[in-house]
Prior knowledge:
The protein is α/β, with parallel strands linked by helices. The chain has a domain at 14-238: Spore Coat Polysaccharide Biosynthesis Protein SpsA, Chain A. The chain contains 11 helices and 12 strands. The protein has helices at 25-38, 61-67, 84-94, 115-123, 193-198, 212-222, 253-264, 269-275, 288-296, 302-308, 313-316; strands spanning 14-20, 44-51, 73-77, 99-102, 107-109, 127-136, 143-144, 151-155, 161-165, 179-180, 189-192, 226-238. Strands 1, 2, 3, 4, 5, 6, 7, 10, 11 and 12 form a 10-stranded mixed sheet that branches. It has a two-stranded antiparallel sheet with strand order 8-9. Helix 6 (212-222) packs parallel to helix 7. 41% of the residues are buried. Its cofactor is Mn(2+). It is a single-pass membrane protein; Single-pass type II membrane protein. Belongs to the glycosyltransferase 2 family. GalNAc-T subfamily.
Amino acid sequence: SCKHKVYLETLPNTSIIIPFHNEGWTSLLRTIHSIINRTPDSLIAEIILVDDFSDREHLKEKLEEYMVRFAKVRIVRTKKREGLIRTRLLGASLARGEVLTFLDSHCEVNVNWLPPLLNQIALNHKTIVCPMIDVIDHNHFGYEAQAGDAMRGAFDWEMYYKRIPIPPELQRADPSDPFESPVMAGGLFAVNRKWFWELGGYDPGLEIWGGEQYEISFKVWMCGGGMYDVPCSRVGHIYRKYVPYKVPSGTSLARNLKRVAETWMDEFAEYIYQRRPEYRHLSTGDISAQKELRKHLKCKDFKWFMAAVAWDVPKYYPPVEPPPAAWGEVRN
């Protein structure tokens, strides 16, 4: 059905923001070339490559020389290792496009990937949209379609990202139509630039990586917006077997998750602490500015989010574990 879809004649343009740290040469080039080759030029305001203090030689002068051929590509570099979240924020702060589109540096965008995303934002500027993420095999780098049917983004009560079936109530007559999703998978999404900053961007108190996808997802839903996955927008992504760089010591995914839970999840944070008691004693840092933002935007509470948006999550991941149906032992 995607071949026959018609989009608005006038779509907003976008700044495409690609953070990277010690990325492989060909993976980064594949990302850039696929964008240039498969995106209407009029829709690209700029492509901002944000180098998070890489030390690999090919990402210095060689990269600068190579990117000269692309008029819309500019390279920005941090002065110290900032981590994914703050690197994205830096790119967003320099962007001039009407929409911000965030991609990872090891992707391949597919044919006509951008208009379906921009169309949804043009219809409602308080919308975050995510492409369907296909798989680029980390061994042979072949592009493979995402396995199975389209699914909604969800989470369990240890804050692991999950995918759950689209319930019948939300299924569209045309399965290629965008559908609501409670949380996003991670770093591939588009958002109206002004709306992103109205929401406060990412919480700058989140360190390096992790938890930011929940923060932005809860925030957009609870503060008057919505989030959609768009089946006609396909982007391949390399799921790496190992991280090709060192994460600075002293940073903690657990701290980020607790910070998000304390800011946005209200009494539901207790379900996380029951499963992860070690989180109780972690410091979140100062979250008063985040709480103030929530008040200023007149955001709804997390109970509303669970009832109105993520109402199907407890069916698969109940906050309170049901008692075992049976118990005993197995002998061989």
